Amino acid sequence: MAVRRLDPILVDRIAAGEVVERPASVVRELVENALDAGASRIDVAIEAGGRRLIRVSDDGGGMSADDLALAVERHATSKIPDGDLTAIATLGFRGEALPSIGAVAALTLTTRREADAHGWRLAVIAGEKGEPTPAGRMRGTQVEVRDLFFATPARLKFLKSERAEAQAAADSVRRLAMAHPQTRFSFAGEGAAGFDWLATEGDDATATARRIAQAMGAEFDANALTLEAEREGLRLSGRIGLPTHHRANALAQYVFVNGRPVRDRLLAGAIRAAYADYLPGDRHPALALFLACDPRLVDVNVHPAKAEVRFRDPGLIRGLVVGALKQTLGAALHRATTTGGDRLATLLERRTTAAAQPGLWSGAAPRPAVAAWDWRASPAAPAGFDERAEALPAHRYAGPPAPQADARAGAAPAEAEALAHPLGAARAQLHETYILAQTADGLVLVDQHAAHERLVYERLKRQRETTGVARQALLIPVVVEMPEDDVARLVEARAGLEGLGLSLERFGPGAVAVHETPALIRGDVAALVRDLAGTLAEDEADSRPLAAKLDHRLATIACHHSVRAGRKLSGEEMNALLREMEATPGAGQCNHGRPTYVELKLADLEKLFARR
Fold first, then answer.
1. Which of 60, 145, 352, 535 is deepest in the core (most CB within 10 A)?
2. Which helix or strand (DSSP H or E) is residue 608 part of?
């Protein structure tokens, strides 16, 4: 078969397969063009998920008739004035978007420069370009795309539902709006929540913070930390969520490079590494990060959709991101998300309402009789209930006896100095598991095991990084029997385990003898060794650096051998735990990402009792 040159319209349709993947791709390209044109307001409207109509209007610089005719030609652009591809300072530059869109849809552009007496309109339908004609238009450009992919019907089969496509288009506009807070953005379309965000005032940092709050919500804003870092000409800024404000996926992670939203594996990996100490592997933080650098240090032309970038020095970028995130999270110390207290207040309010209205029952079935339920038979019966307490007369109360709380910490009034601490002064221990503390404006409920787990872990890490984990020799070695595979793993990792304070050796077939353990640990040595064997088995398929694997093993040690629920603590011990939490990085969550405490404000308590 002879070689032939493809038809120009067919070439444009092939290019559209790379540039115009879905309606959201069209929206992104058109909004980027509006931003590059200097628009201070951008309005986006779609119908049928973008298949029937996409309209993007702006008040940018506009175009002349000659520029309009050239804008829909392949490889025509105004965004590389000197032809230098190594220093791209604009958002869109490939020169393929408009002709590619016009090749698969009905494209209409209406534009006007402020100095012109009237505007111009140009239509491109399935690749057939018309001529510019005079049209009425205020300053700026309006682009309408109708019947997307009507010229290539096969592409329609690969689109998702109208709702899914509308949400993807809204997300594209949202991401660009976050990076350009000085521009007003509006979005309207069926199947996705619309918005109209006014341009934010103030300096760049203030304006960006306000726009992030608009895009990610008030709950994120209340549980986020401000990040600012610079290194070797790179500047990283943004807002990062507390570890306890985590999500099931990474959709709430917004990353920008020189104002361009990207989904970069290097940056995603750096974020995951920075939060590894605070979150389990199946949870993801919420954040918005903005990286600014010399355009010559990043290649934005490595992906047709401009969703990926490539850095000249990826090690420098990764080090900046990981270091800045860890430093910011560490500076937050014990701070945890506010949603824990909100959930507690909501739960208490519901139960209070149900108790006050015996006839109120939210279930579909009739409310079960309380007298027919034996609470002692429940597997979840709390250990804090004392059956020996004097029971109330049966006709007055048919439920369990009142719970017993160890109130030794609250025998004397709390000092004002203690109440001024962020976590307040310990007042009681509930069910030998939770510490109840009083603050100046509310109360705090602490999970003593989760809190001590984090404290022990951080101490072990500090020791490992400085003098090495302190060890204590056992008077009699502990022999632990286990499968031969686990024994082999432990013996092979013996040198590394000694750095963690654990000294052991093989003791015949299927057993190891433990001679030394970490000095901070008090607990079942055999259980500790078996836990570490399981961790080593997990590490075989783990590609993380050695330091991260060592921290994982330290977390295992801290988790299984900290203060357990059910242990009585004195008032001094409880207050000492609270003070150490306030001074320890990451003390607001345990090693698994769960909160170590919840806080309830006095105002919430007053609402429960109808005082306000």
1. 145
2. helix 602-608
